UniProtKB/TrEMBL annotation:
The organism of origin for this protein: Brachybacterium kimchii
UniProt keyword terms in alphabetical order: Methyltransferase, Transferase
Location of the Methyltransferase domain: 53-145
UniProt keyword S-adenosyl-L-methionine, yes or no: no
Region (Disordered): 1-21
Protein name: Class I SAM-dependent methyltransferase
Amino acid sequence: MSTLPSTNPYEDPESARLYDAENSGREDVEFYRRLARKLRGTAARGADAPFTVLDIGCGTGVLCVDLAADGHRVLGVDPAGAMLEIARTRPGGERVTWILGSADAAPEAEADLAVMTGHAAQQIVPADAWHALLASAHRALRPGGVLAFESRDPRRRPWEHWTPESTRGDFPHPDGGVFTSWVELLAVDESGADGVVETHRGITEREGSARRSAEETLIFRPLEVLRADLEAAGFAVEQVHGDWSGGPVTDATAELILLGRRA
Ligand SMILES: C[S@@+](CC[C@H](N)C(=O)[O-])C[C@H]1O[C@@H](n2cnc3c(N)ncnc32)[C@H](O)[C@@H]1O
């Protein structure tokens, strides 16, 4: 069995096909659906304007189609064509406007809510790219619109648990049978002022096929950095939650879920 060279997991069609199987049973989708329903009642938009949600880094579009089924106008943007192809062809995908690109490709001042889910915010590692993304999200929102996203809390040091043994799992393959996946930690850099930067390799294996591997680098920004970055981009941070039931951030919670309002 050969090992394929590293690929960007979101650009590779075969890896993109496995994404939903590896990411089922999520709690975040219901959190963001509830948030959209709640904001829809209070959004300051014209009487005829639909409540519009922009999903930045929408991936395979799981949340987008649910939001569209809830009656919102939904724009899903993602720079990875392989992920967007799965999103487009998902049942209900015809109700969503799909845009190949990032937040800067979204129309100006149309969104009432912009979201970044599946820890997509942690993939934008260089500080200038992160600040540019927040500026684009701000531009895409109507005045009074809300940006909501989550990032893993670095105080919990989750990368220390990302060993092959603790991450190994079997999942149904879209073509039948199962595939196995696991993660190998490659590097951790704790020297940066903006947060801990971690690189890991995700590996998938299926009987009779070549083993596939792809490297991914994530940044774990502390809450104070996320707050300051949002404020610098023109958002008022209105809520911070530590879990998907909307509880506060504590020493025991794993997520930093932030809601910032465009002034
Ligand atoms: C972990 S996936 C999350 C996908 C989806 N939001 C979810 O919750 O399942 C991260 C996604 O972010 C996208 N992404 C990476 N860099 C991005 C950027 N600069 N702007 C927008 N999306 C980006 C990737 O292509 C990928 O589809």
